[in-house]
Amino acid sequence: MLNELSKDDLFCVFYKEWITVYKEGAVRQVTLNKYLLALSWLEKLVPDLKLSDLDRIAYQSLLNHYAKDHERQTTMDFHHLLKGAVLDAVDEGLVPRDPTRKAIVKGKTPRPKKTRYLNQFELHKLLASLDLGEIIGWEWFILLVAKTGLRFSEALAVTPADFDFNRQTLSVSKTWDYKNGGGFVPTKNRSSVRKVQIDWQLIVQFSVLIKNLAKDEPMFVTKDKKVYNSTANDVLARLCKRAGVPVISIHGLRHTHASLLLFAGVSIASVAKRLGHASMNTTEKTYLHIIQELENKDVDLVMRSLTSLV
Questions:
Q1: What is the pTM of this model?
Q2: How far, CA to CA in Å, does 9 sit from each of 23, 40, 62, 84?
Q3: How confident is the model at residue 295 (pLDDT cuts 50, 70, 90)?
Q4: Which fold has domain 2-91?
């Protein structure tokens, strides 16, 4: 265990023990997997690096090697995954000084960004082209995400019991663990537990669709069949091409939903709550480009209003 390690032990050995002590059972599996991936990179890049040799130069060299094959943001994430363990090693006296201080994060030039969201006209074309039959499938899934902004795992976990047609709401209280074989698991954070208001058209459509389904069983997946994000994205890509609109991902539908609300004048606070963001800072950061565009429009509106006073 950690208290049995010394300065002469390997950094990757310390990091592995640190994950076991501090992260296993304390974070979701998807988060734990990120730490384990960081461990695999340590074992690949610095398999012989001892704690006693972990100074600023060694740490910077590690980040530089990682950055050769990764974009800057990915390298930044790697840095943050390591930093907590490194600081604990410093506190335990295994590393003399904080080697992460003033670390410079580099990375490859980002690839050209794909289209993240559709405008209102493009979304209308996409939804109008959906073949919504009597059997639930990916096209119904796409409609639900587009109109609610749910995350992929949240939408997979939707059951008939989650619909409250009288109050026009859809309860989000769980997700589907599609990466680890399925099953219900908690939401991403406490803010993700929410009730999403839905429109009357969606109510009419789904009230008929779920009439004979088991109340507490997921509508879009079965427990004995694994589901992949890539499958849904492939279906959506084909539908986008058929509708003649830019190809986006399922997560892009969530961005589309949020973007249209912001452009319609819905407050950032309301959008953050609807999306299940832990704070408005997340919403502001994610949709900064849209917020700036709206601010520019507001400035124009203010100027026109002041001019009319003359």
A1: 0.69
A2: 20, 17, 17, 18
A3: low
A4: DNA polymerase; domain 1 (1.10.150)
